[in-house]
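Re: the request from the purification team.
They wanted to know what the chain is likely to look like in 3D before they choose a buffer screen. I agreed to run a prediction and write the result into the notebook, where they can find it.
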Amino acid sequence: MTQQAVILFSAGLDCTVSLALAREQGLQLALGLVFDYGQQAAEAEWRQAQVLARHFDLPLQRLALPWLGEITETALAKGSQQALPEVSVAELDSIATVTLASAQKVWVPNRNGLLINIAAAFADRYGYQAILTGFNAEEAATFPDNTPQFAEAATRALAFSTQVQPRVSSYVQHLNKVEIVGEALRLKLPLTALWSCYRDGERHCGRCESCSRLKRALQAQRCESEYKEIFGADA
C-alpha cells in the first residue's frame, strides 16, 4: 500500500527537492503545510509555495502562528530589532567564526520541533505515515534541528504522542546544497520558482546566508540562466 505524507513546505530548495525525491521513490504527498510565524519572507514563501504546489499538484494549507514571532528576538521576524546577518559565499565554510553566529541570530525558539508536532496532528488525524522535511547535511553543521539525530528523536517522541506513529524524514538529509541542486536538475524542477531568501520581495536579496548557499550551489552546477533570474544579472 502506498504511504502518505504531510510536508513542511516553505518553497525552499531543500523541501522542494525532498518532495520530488520522495515522490520518485513512491511516497504520496497528501498535504503541504506552509507556516507564517511572522517571518519577513512569509508572503514570498506563500506566493511561491502556491506556484510549486500547482507544479506538483500538492494540496496546501497555510497556518498562522503569530505568537511565535512575538516571543522571539530572531532577525528573521518582521520588525526585529536585529538586522538580518549577511554572509558572503566566501564565508560559508567559516563555521566557527561566521555561520554559527549567523545561525544564532536567525534562531526561532523550537521552530522545527513545533512545526513537526503540528504536522503530526494532521498525520494522526488523517493517517499519514510520514512527515517530510528539507533537513540537509549542509545546514545540519550549524542547526542542530536539521540533523538526522533530531529527526530520529522526533520520530521516537511521536511514537508516544500519536496513534499513527509517523516517521520524520528528509530525502535530502545526506546531501549538501550543490548535490541538492544537482538532483533538482536531474528531476527537471523549476528552480526559478523556489524561494530560499530570508527576506520578502519579488527577487532574492542575494546577501543573506540562505541566498549565498543557493548562489554557491547554482554556480557549482553552472546554472547561469537560473542564477540570473533568481538574483538578477548584476548579482
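For the purification team: The radius of gyration is 17 Å.
Please add any questions underneath this entry.
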